[in-house]
Amino acid sequence: MKTKIALLALLPAGLLFADHHGEQTTKKLYPNAPLIPGSEYTVHDTTRPQPRKVESGGCVSVKAPSDAKVLFDGTNTEAWKGNWRVEDGILIASRGTLSTKEEFGDCQVHIEYRVPADREVMGQKGGNSGIFLMGRYEIQIGESHTNVTYPDGQAGAVYGQTPPLVNPATPQGEWQSYDIIFKAPVSEDGKVVKPAEITVLFNGVVVQASYKIQGPTKHQTTTSYPENHPAKGPINLQWHNDPIEFRNIWVRDLGEYDQQ
């Protein structure tokens, strides 16, 4: 075991990752995955360098502004379609997708999540969820403080497209926060002429800065925008067989400048 650890320590940064079983290896998990457009790396490329770890102050809990639509305040799931359960003021991923009844385009979203402390997490298993803007564009939710996975699939990533700029995750069992500013794609004559754009603060730290989303997020493949893209869509929370916990979820429409 000591010899193995010593040899692993000599490998270049970015070559180690945890596969679906949590084992460290230098093999690509998806060797036939395509190159991400504009990148030298393939989708879910485990040789891609891991984002730099930074210490953060942890969850930034923000009270919903007066013009926000409160999606979850600890009491009920009336704003959602789905069957997740609520226990002690906490929304727990239970089964199936949870989807807002209302649809949104340009918006600001605040959400807080926690991976249970006693949950065994290995790679993409055990602590996995995601928040989907317009039901199509996923920001990965998961345990990234000590757990290692492919960089475009760790917490704060635009799934399958780009890793977070840095990794400000705090230990498993602690609450974490995302503050998201999302600009919906712009279409003309049924075709997207301006891509969706997203900025994400993870525990108060910028991890996506006006990133231009390449299309709906997908697994193991590249993406592009479909024709006749809708102007709005629901916010979805993903069930990935893991009981991820959520609290304090709200959204604000981002309209034009209001002088009144």
TrEMBL record:
Indicate yes or no for the key word Signal.
yes
Q: Which UniProt keywords apply?
A: Signal
Question: Its domain of life?
Answer: Bacteria
Signal sequence interval, chain numbering: 1-18
Coiled-coil regions in this chain? none
Protein source organism:
Roseibacillus persicicus
Q: Which GO terms describe its molecular function?
A: hydrolase activity
Q: What is the lineage of its organism?
A: Bacteria, Pseudomonadati, Verrucomicrobiota, Verrucomicrobiia, Verrucomicrobiales
Keyword rRNA processing in the entry? The reply is no
Q: Which residues form the 3-keto-alpha-glucoside-1,2-lyase/3-keto-2-hydroxy-glucal hydratase domain?
A: 68-252
Can you say what this protein is called?
Answer: 3-keto-alpha-glucoside-1,2-lyase/3-keto-2-hydroxy-glucal hydratase domain-containing protein
